[in-house]
Amino acid sequence: MALAVSSSSSSAISASNLQHFAASFEVKAPRIVSVQLLNRPRGLSYGVDYSRKGCSVKPINVKSKRNDLIVPLSANTLGAEVEEKAETVDYDGLAKDFENASPLEIMDTALERFGNDIAIAFSGAEDVALIEYARLTGRPFRVFSLDTGRLNSETYKFFDTVEKHYGIHIEYMFPDAVEVQGLVRNKGLFSFYEDGHQECCRVRKVRPLRRALKGLRAWITGQRKDQSPGTRSEIPIVEVDPIFEGLDGGIGSLIKWNPVANFDSKYIWNFLRTMNVPVNSLHSQGYVSIGCDPCTRPILPGQHEREGRWWWEDSKAKECGLHKGNLKHLNGNGNGALHVNATPQVNDIFVSENLVNLNRIGIENLARLENRKEPWLVVVYTPWCQFCQAMEGSYVELAEKLAGNGVKVGKFRGDGEQKEFAKQELQLGSFPTVLFFPKHSSKAVKYPSEKRDVDSLMAFVNALR
């Protein structure tokens, strides 16, 4: 696998030495070569179970099992193996230990511990700082980006500049052509101005990202607390990803690193200028946060940087879905208000014309039927559950695939006053619980796995219908 590599000191560089290091470091675009990890002293020594099996850097010419996920550019060049770890770690505690660490130290630790199974998410904006920090560690690193097909021409030119500057190949992920075609044919090119950006982002960004992350055990983002007061003010430096699944599948299979979470925009831009890092030319035109062309515009003096994104929508909760885990217990206004009984007010999930919303009477009738005309797949959920939110995209996609194929897909909200009923009659142990009601049986079959991707759910349905 081709890796972006560069030569540097074999030990991590602290923030206090960065200025001296920057002055003496000659920036050159490195060549793509076959390398071995250096014998380096470890930084922070935490025993970490990165999704149960730990990180595994493959030897030369090993066959990757990532298939069509992130293109496995770097699977064939590493000559060392990292032994699997079986220890566990308190990620909240680990995040606290990193509170005063520099982005360079955090980046170095992340790359050291995950090797070839971690990648930097690059958006074409100031995320280039992450690539520079990765280069300064001297370790091999991978970079991927989501090409939605609607980026500015300046952003595409920037991608090319970054690849040449660092001597790397960015691993691009693209949306499914059939899904994009269906969206555009049914709703036109600019439906998001009328009904919100979520549907378009789900097709062009969220689902490609889900495919990408299924080939990794960890990813690195450029999220900062100052970027969006409504959604990013509490992001930790490192966490178990609450939304997406990694290579091993299931809850806890993906680790998310946010090395610049505690650093503001001024710090990042001072770093970029100091290191003479290439930047997107749109920044000089008033763009700060840069996304797709139709959904991004320059901001005015005094405006917050995220106000240039989806400017026609509520400014307090501007997320495309890539970092949906940040939306903790927010209601429709993004202010986190609660019901008097302390149940969070949130927008409903699993919203699709291909899904039947079952009430108490509906689910009772379905459960009593012994001869159904069609089998049913039903999720027992609550919209404030992060694990329910995590499977929303895959479950909606599954409903689309099953539409007209002889299986009804539904949902039943099982929290609040319905919780006891769901426990007694619907096998609810924890949210979400997925049940299959066969055509000629009164007993529902509970989905036994924590893997909630489309393929796993479809295999469950096909085995029973």
TrEMBL record:
CDD domains recorded: PAPS_reductase, PDI_a_APS_reductase
PROSITE patterns: THIOREDOXIN_2
UniProt-recorded Gene Ontology molecular function terms: adenylyl-sulfate reductase (glutathione) activity; adenylyl-sulfate reductase activity; iron-sulfur cluster binding; metal ion binding; phosphoadenylyl-sulfate reductase (thioredoxin) activity
Keyword 4Fe-4S belongs to the record: no
Enzymatic reactions: glutathione disulfide + sulfite + AMP + 2 H(+) = adenosine 5'-phosphosulfate + 2 glutathione
GO aspect biological process, one term: cysteine biosynthetic process
Subcellular location: Plastid, Chloroplast
Domain Thioredoxin: 331-465
GO CC list: chloroplast
Cofactor(s) listed in the protein's UniProt record: [4Fe-4S] cluster
NCBIfam families assigned: APS_reduc, PRK02090.1
Similarity section: Belongs to the APS reductase family.
Function: Reduces sulfate for Cys biosynthesis. Substrate preference is adenosine-5'-phosphosulfate (APS) >> 3'-phosphoadenosine-5'-phosphosulfate (PAPS). Uses glutathione or DTT as source of protons.
Protein known as: adenylyl-sulfate reductase (glutathione)
Gene giving rise to this polypeptide: LOC111456956
